[in-house]
Amino acid sequence: MNSSEINIAIVGATGAAGGTALKLLLERNHPADKITLMASERSAGRKLRYDDTELIVVHAKADAFEGIDVALFAAGGDVSRRLAHKAVERGVFVIDKGSIFRMDPTIPLVVPEVNGDDIDWHPGIVSTPNCTSTPLVMVLDAVRELSAISAVTVATYQSVTGTGVAANEELLEQSRTVLAGGEAKPDVYPHEIAFNVLPHVDDFLEDGYTKEEQKMLKESRKILHDDDLLVSATCVRVPVEISHSESVQIEFESDVSVDDARRVLASYDGVMVVDDPSQNKYPMPLSAAGRDEVLVGRIRKDIAHENGIALWLACDNLRKGAALNALQIMDEALRRDAFKPAAQRTTT
Q1: Which pTM was predicted?
Q2: Same domain (yes/no): 111, 259
Q3: Do residues 88 and 342 lie in contact, with contact meaning Cβ atoms separated by under 8 Å?
Q4: Rounded Cα gap, residues 79 and 39, in angstroms
Q5: Dist CA 112 CA 138 (whole Å)
Q6: What is the tens place of the pLDDT at every residue in 243-272?
Q7: Apex 143 CA angle, 322 and 96, nearest 5
Q8: Residues 80 and 138 grouped into a single domain
Q9: Does 347 score more than 70 pLDDT?
Q10: CATH code at 57?
Q11: Which residues are catalytic, by number?
């Protein structure tokens, strides 16, 4: 099958990640008649612009998947739980952006640059990681070529589009209100997000970490196939529209030089080194927005740890952090002729 022949459904097409997936398909010149947009019953009938035409959003329900080859789910866990397996029953290869399948041992959790081989054993569904885990594991996969990694400490600076369209609108509205001398009224977040930072992404757990921070540990272990990896994360929401940034400290089992770390990162697929502080060149959310690469810079020795490297990264959370990674999974499955579940491929 040629990629332009694939019938693709975007479930959650009216959301931030779904809208980015549609934008990426346009960049690829995917035929409009090979795209089906799905959303809630409330959004059914809405028209979304696609190049010089308009695509009509249909209600996401089981029978809407007839004739679909690949479905990108970006509508939240409840929708995935209700419809993903029903889509698989209709012969659809499901790529899910939500969190409900990520830690299921029967379902691969994939960043193609890191563990594309895991697509080979999928049961009809492949899960994509959290938008903070994706750039982190790419960096870790690159540098672990130099030495085994013993521990990682990471602080994230996450944009509001990681929460969704409503959160982005809240940031903009609060910013206008505060600049005009008014009082911001929180809704999506528990506190004002304009001109503020919240050390609070997802719900808090009994151990004091949040679910988001827990995801970074568990997802990194699964993707990297390293159950002993230690990841201590602090996840922070910042008043930025697009792109997540991360401050990362990596402890190795043996000494790693800055030059070697820079070399392996620069040669890693999907990573771009932007690292010349003397010229004020380093990754920023604004420079990462709209780009496919994970930007990495501020690479230096971690003076707090004998075998440590510290660095800073920025990544467009809607592209590589979500929609792009899903489309790259589709590309890899197509290359491997692996749209069907592994059990079906082994019996035919």
Answers
A1: 0.96
A2: no
A3: no
A4: 9
A5: 10
A6: 999 999 999 999 999 999 999 999 999 999
A7: 20
A8: no
A9: no
A10: 3.40.50.720
A11: 131, 244
